[in-house]
Each structure stands twice: as C-alpha cells, then as structure tokens.
Amino acid sequence: MPEAAESNWNGPLAGVRVLDFTRVLAGPAASLALADLGAEVFKIEPPGTGDETRSFPPMRDGESHYYLAINRGKKSLVVDLKSEEGVALVKDLAVQCDVLVENYRPGVMDRLGLGYETLKAINPRLIYCSISGYGQTGPLKDRPSFDIVLQAMSGALSMNGEPDGLPTKLGIPLGDLVGGINGPIGILSALYERERTGVGRHIDVSLMDGLMGMLGYIAQLAFFTGKDPQRVGSQHPNLVPYGIFPASDGSIVIACLTPAFWGRVCRSIERPELTGDPRYDTLEKRRDAREEVNALVSAFTQRHTVDELVAIFTAQEVPHAPILGVTEALSQPQAAARGMVVETQHATLGSIPIVNRPIRFTDAPQPVPEAPPVLGQHTDAILSGVLDLSPERIAALRAAGVIA
C-alpha cells in the first residue's frame, strides 16, 4: 500500500461540495476528477436502477466493472426526481453545494425544475457545469451522442487507422473522457473566479468541441495545406522513424522527434554513418524517404528480441517502449512505484483493486480513495448530515418512495 494510506489530507478541494447528476461516462469522469482532488461528491441516482452503468457486464456479485471504474470516492444518494418532494430535496442540497455537474441532454434539467437559472436564484454562488455531446447551442445540440459518434464528427476518427484500411475507433473512449478533462478545468477556473466575484456561473462543455480542441497541430496542418491529413497508422505524418517496428518476438515503439534523436537511433541500429547521410539529414528528407528509413530500422529491430531492443535503446536514450497489455502495464515497476493500483474496501465486494488518482501532491499524500458506492449507500447520511433531517422524516420520505 502506498504512503497515501497514512494521510488524512483529502486534497486541495476538501470542503468543496459537488452535486452530481451524471451518468454513464463523460459526466462521471468529470465528477471523478473532482472527487480525486478532495471534493465531497453527492451522486444523485434514480431509484431501482441507479446510474445505467451499474448494469453493464461483466459483473461481480451484482457490481459492474464499468461503474466501479469511474465512481470511486463518491457518495450515492437515491432520489426520485419525478416527485415534487424529490426535486425539493435536491434544491435544498443545491443551496449547500458549491458545484453541480450534469450530463443530460440540453433541456432535461430545466424540465426537471433543476436548470441553472432556477438553482442560481436560490444559490448565486453555485457553479453549474453542463456536459453534453454537442453543447447547449447549435443545430446538433439535441442529438444523442456516444464516443464513436463524437470521434467521427470531430475529425479524430478519420485520422486513426492504417492507410489502406477503414478508420479505426480510438481504443480509449477519448470522445467521452474529454469531458472529464475540460469539465474540471472549467469548474476549477470558476471556483477561482468566485473567490473574487462571490458568484458562480454556468459552464457549457461540448464533447465534440473538446475533441476538436485536441486535434492540435493536426488542425493547423489542415489549415496550412487545405487538405485532410491522411491516416498513417501508428506512424507520425511528419516525423520518421516514429511508430511500431518488428522484433523477433513481437514489436516495439520508437519515437524519433528531433535531429538529436536521429543520431541516437543511427548509433542504436549500428549505422552511425546514416546520421549525416545527405539523404536523411533533415526531418523533411526522412519524411519523404519514409519507407527507406523504416526499412533500415526494421532490418535491425527484427533481428533482436523486445528485451534486447529495450536495452539497446535505453543505453542510447532513444524514446521507445515495449507494447504492454493492460494487465502488464498496471503491474509494471513504474506503476508500482507510483502507487497507481491500490486496494480499497467496498461495501459488498470487500477488498478490491482500483486505479489510484493520477494527480499527486508532493509531500502531501492523500488517503487511498474510498470505493465506489453501492446504490443509495449514503442516502441517510447525506440527508441527516447535510440537511439535518430527522430519522422520522427520512423514514417518511422512504415510505413515500421519494428516496430509496
């Protein structure tokens, strides 16, 4: 267990309360980041089913791998938002919270009576973050969207895959996960601004906007050339050698980004004379001679095992990596040294491994994250501790089906 288990410091957002109306992936990824940073996250779930991902297989003892992956450190509160009393409870909670995050389609929260203008009237300090596929405006705002749809619409999908094949979806659902990046950035910025102004604001996060923002130099290349960048598989459109190269027992990644690294590659493959070869001595020349350069490198790499190549390229400080499976990646020495996998105690599953927080604070370790909650695990504790409801009142609400 890493040293974080010995700390009682929850993180820099300790004391910040978040009302979480998110489900599936994009929204929960955003509230997960806030929980990781120490915020107290109240996840509002519907009676019976809860977040849809609670039923996504494979399951273990009734708990979904999917839900467990993106809901650590949160508190589950089951409220029926179709009832007036349920909406009233949530409004009372909104008064006590700093942030609200939701990822319903535009307009849903307004129809529930929980839109930004409504809650702003009762809590002007509330920072309200809406995450949706296409944003709150524009001709596509009401369309349903999922990760692969967003990858397609943003241009990202067109860039992924081998040149002679169909486009290939990114293995990581970045179209959704971008909400877990941009949502917290907007929220943290608004929290900082609120320190000066005393009021919150509405944040409109579009997942398609986020993926377009991640196009980066690819978008600028299209602006410069007026043409769509073409698929190059695992290679780079302008840097060579860069990509996956064969080994005698597998393959290895090599990334040659600068002229200095080209010299190191040449020494590694026992062809030091290629460093100043006029056919390959600039980035542009190597790009134009891509097949020749890759063939030179492959001729060397395919005669060696992956382990041998790792040793060779490490000695020459060439950026490289073996291609690890997920299980091997999670158990590698670097991940272990960083404490990226920890054990936590789940209410029904007992001790389970989870991925740890990706952001650390030097000399201020946080405790191991709390396990993802079972459905409604914290309903009574939140209503009594935050809203000061009596046991009798909570029992009456449960009997009426308002909470579960």
TrEMBL record:
Name by which UniProt lists this protein: CoA transferase
Key words, A-Z: Transferase
Any single Pfam family the record assigns to this protein: CoA_transf_3
GO MF entry, a single one: transferase activity
Highest taxon of source: Bacteria
Parts forming coiled coils: none
InterPro entries attached to this UniProt entry: CoA-transferase_III_domain (IPR050483), CoA-Trfase_fam_III (IPR003673), CoA-Trfase_III_dom3_sf (IPR044855), CoA-Trfase_III_dom_1_sf (IPR023606)
